Amino acid sequence: MSSDGVVRGTPKDSSEIELVDITPQLLSASQPAKLNAAVPQELLSYKPEPYRIGPGDQLYITVWDHPELTSPAGVQQQTAANGRLVRSDGTLYYPYLGSTKVEGMTIEELRQALTSKLAKYIEKPQVDVNVVGFNSQHVLFQGAFMKTDPQTITAVPLTLGQAIGFATINADQANLSDLILSRDGHDYHIDLSSFGDLPNIPNDIYLKPGDRLFLPYNDTKEVYVVGEVVRPAPVGFRTVASLSLTQALGRAGGLNPATSDGKEVYVIRGAKNLENTPPKVFQLDARSPTAFALGDQFMVRPGDVVFVGAAGITRWNRVISQILPSASLVTSAAAANYSATH
């Protein structure tokens, strides 16, 4: 217990570390269903509702054979000049009817309501309603997009693919594996890179007003390759959603042929939380070429540490290189002492 009275976690000893061999059976058991991994089912199930009018929308209302109601600014004016603004309180002013609450109504519901009310003043009114300015509903963008301006929702349903195409992904900086769609207080995580095998999925996901799309940056998405490799270094995922063990080793130049032990290729997972949770260590015996086929199916995760152990002769040489300087010093001292006494 620390001085502040809080019981701190203690490092786990090596007996608690789980060592798992990378085998075909392990890879088969860990393969997720690609569709479910890429797209939450709730998003696929959502179907857009008819557009509902909101404050800021501009409406063009046509009453056939009554130009004074259709084009109060004059038929020679542009359509926008004869539009009618939905005010901030959700009401619309219209001749004969005064202020009418229209917020939340569909276009068809408003058309029918106007037809019914105008029938008191006009015999069999023929009414049409169009939205000429969609200003009340938007989808928001944040993160690694080239354009983060809000995108307007219109009467034509907006798909995820269309929205992403509008915003344009910053390919050099985006983490495609974790697009976050926030809707109604819930965050949905979407793996965009999986859409390469499911090309129609982005157009099967419809967005709704108020959705927020956040595409994180890839600057913290790294695997650390250390030990007996040619170029030990952090390896970034960049635009790819997943990185295999073989790819990570390849980006580090591969195993050092002079010093590495092919049977000691480890992936250490959970190293950042050693105080509370023992890490899981996966081992690949890479002495045969076929082993790299397994490594190509084993996906590393951000924060993993890939460690390649040294061969026995390498360890022996390093021990000797540390002993010999000390032995040389001892021998030199002994020789000097002998010379001084004789």
TrEMBL record:
The keyword Transmembrane applies. GO terms for cellular component: cell outer membrane; pore complex. It is a multi-pass membrane protein. Its main location: membrane. Residues 221-308 form the SLBB domain. Belongs to the BexD/CtrA/VexA family. This is Capsular biosynthesis protein. It comes from Dyella japonica A8.
